[in-house]
Amino acid sequence: MIRIVGDVNFTDGFFDTGFGIGSEIEKGQDPFKHIDRRAEDVWFGNFECVISRVSNKDGIYNKQFILSPDKMSHIKHLDYYNVANNHVMQHGKEAFEKTLQYIESTNSEYVGSKDSKSIVFTHQRKKVGIVSFSQREEKYTTDPMYWYDPEYSDIKSEYNRISSSDFKIVYIHWGIEYINRPYVDQKKFAHWLIDLGFDLIVGLHPHVLQGYEVYKGKYIFYSMGNFVFNMPLESTRYSIVLNLNLDSEVAEITYDYVNIGKDNFPQIVDASIVPDKFKFEYLNTRLNLEQENELYFKEVFNHIKKNRKANHLTLLKSLHKFKMGDVMSVFFDFIKRRL
Question: How far is residue 320's CA from residue 251's CA, in Å, rounded to a whole number?
Fold first, then answer.
């Protein structure tokens, strides 16, 4: 079975520098320790951080979304990682290249770089093709080394490279953070991708779970949510593992709900403990709401306000955890970012 998850960040973030996930990994913790992974399964996730000893940042900024590879030696990695996202270039080109080298050194493979826009592998006697790209704003470089904002014609060309595969997946970093539904142009684009020939669409970036739809018999999961990530909003702590079984003639798609616990590590949970507002029964109804831009973005701004408030409270509660030299930097960065 192929098991697909959402955003994975092995490092400390903006508001937990010195005591986040990366700091726990440095102490020997494995963020996948609650996940039972069978040897016969293939796991795929979104690598949304940098693993490198070098950075083009100074001060506290060279401690955020980055971890040295020697701190990761005890982790049993996923089999495949997407690297087309808006954090992987956060520490510059050399650090990005070191990250790719690190992934390869763990016997994992990556997809989504300019040199590896797609990948094909065999599982359960079927050829599986995955194309990966990002449509989110890139603010750390003017020359992304991952596949960024491709033209429709380029997507068609890359699709043709994997078109002989038995099952074709497109893995996209897209959408708007923290809102639990896509916007109308996303849905139109998703339908175009299915019309092109893809069998499954897996969306990333919003950090919350969004609904899925079945279009022409093909599944579109608009946002998988977080898998390994420390964020304060309750909505960012529920997601899924998407299960793809290719053992029969018709692919079988199921899912397991995931909760990110107090240790910030994921665990698969029974649907009965997931709040209704984070289940597909509710989220799928959100896909059919009126989609005018004015109403949609009014809702977006409300979610951003909630996230900003949650970050504010978390920062105030955590000030005593920061190293003395980092407190003021974090505080002023918070004001500047308005997050």
Answer: 51
